[in-house]
Amino acid sequence: MTATVGYHLGLTSQARELEQESLPLRGQLPHWLEGVLLRNGPGLFEVGGYRCRHWFDGLAMLQAFTLREGRVGFRNRHLVTRTLEQAQRSGRIEGSGFATDTNRPLLKRLRGMFHPNLTDNANVNIVHLAGHAVCLTETPVPVAFDAHTLETRGVLPFTDNTTLHMSTAHPMTDGHSGDLYGFGIQFALTSEYLLYRIPAGSRQRRIIARLPVKTPAYMHSFAVTENHLILSEFPLVLRPLDMQLTGRPFIENFRWEPDRGTRFQVFDKRRGTHLGTCVGEPCFAFHHINAFEDEAGQLQVDLAAYPDHDVIRRLYLEPLRRGWQEPACGEAWRFTLDRQRGKATRNRLAARGLELPRIHAKRCSGRDYRHVYGTGNHVPGALTDELVKVDVRQGTHLIWNEADCYPGEPVFVPRPGASDEDDGVLLSVILEAATSTSGLLVLDAHTLEEQARATLPFHLPFGFHGEFLPDQR
Ligand SMILES: [Fe+2]
């Protein structure tokens, strides 16, 4: 039996940039699968004298897997940002990352009260804004790049006058209009949540709703249904003045206050009216799986949830590199909101862990659905070592795994003309620890059977999110 090498290589930098027309390929790509998988995530954890403390603060690197004529091509480029240049030049960074100490002196912090130095290290997600491919993190600083060459084009500012100090890296696209919905937070003595819409083709955030809040919660994503916008306020909250006074890294200012429960703030999607708050058991989540209005008119909100925020602590690089002892993923939980009683009740959707959830978004986002795909964990201490498919109606699941192989977020690509929700493939970037290489895995989304695998000559650090852009025919 071969000894396990482990996931740790996925948390080390990759300084190389590569352009390769055709990678070694095992198996066969479906003939209809033509397009580009764009991925975002950390590329470098150390630059000059600068060392990241947390997985989420790695300096952004873009990856593109091109699937065409049965071949898989590859390209990766580091995102050229002010943060990267500062780190290269001085071994320090000034922008406020997730858990990065920026060493800003108290006087500077107080002078810039509630005007934090926003990071442009946009390493989380990729969306399309006014015809540009942009990278996002949790600051309102989109960084545009060339979707073909992956060259950085620079910050693409919004064209409105709204000041936000934090904004979601997970805006949601409306399938009909192409508009983007998002939310952000303005920190002040009384802070505000802002929900906004960016009309297709525009860079203007039009404010739909504002909700004043004394102690804003850390929220990484939110939910959009046909008629509602929902903020899931987990009881991980911040007194904004503390952030200015302590100078601690952003996330270390938040406190876990489970007695608050999880507060679902429901808004009318068009009028922006705050329709009410439903309170449920305390939990924490980075990712919403989906949300929808059921036949009875009740709102269902599905999360990849954890019982508390401890997962944030466990994703610091030092404990991660030392090794995990606990399962590394959330569980699919459904909260049913009862707006009359102001209550939210919770059900577990499957007996298998799940993180980095993806659905057939084009067809099911904001609507009743059946299948969710995600990363999972089965060997304790192995971070992310399987892919999971959960049938949220039946409560059943399927698994893909392989010894010493660590997959990332599975992106669902529907087969053109398909009628079944799960008729298509999953694309996941995997780390094969035994050979110190990464690659692209293509699974049949119906069965989770492997269809093809392309292998790179080196490893890629574990990334976060991305999109498949099908070729226009
Ligand atoms: Fe995310």
What do you see in this structure?
Its cofactor is Fe(2+). Fe cation binds at residues 170, 220, 287, 465. The chain has 473 residues and is mainly beta. It has a single domain, classed as Methylamine Dehydrogenase, Chain H, CATH 2.130.10. The protein contains 6 helices and 35 strands. The strands form 8 sheets. A 7-stranded antiparallel sheet has the order 23-24-25-26-27-28-29, with no helix packed on it. Strands 2, 30, 31, 32, 33 and 34 form a 6-stranded antiparallel sheet that branches. A 5-stranded antiparallel sheet has the order 1-7-6-3-35, with no helix packed on it. The longest helix is centred in the first third of the chain and has 9 residues, at 82-90. The model has no long low-confidence stretch (mean pLDDT 93). Fe (ii) ion binds at residues 124, 169-170, 220, 286-287, 464-465.
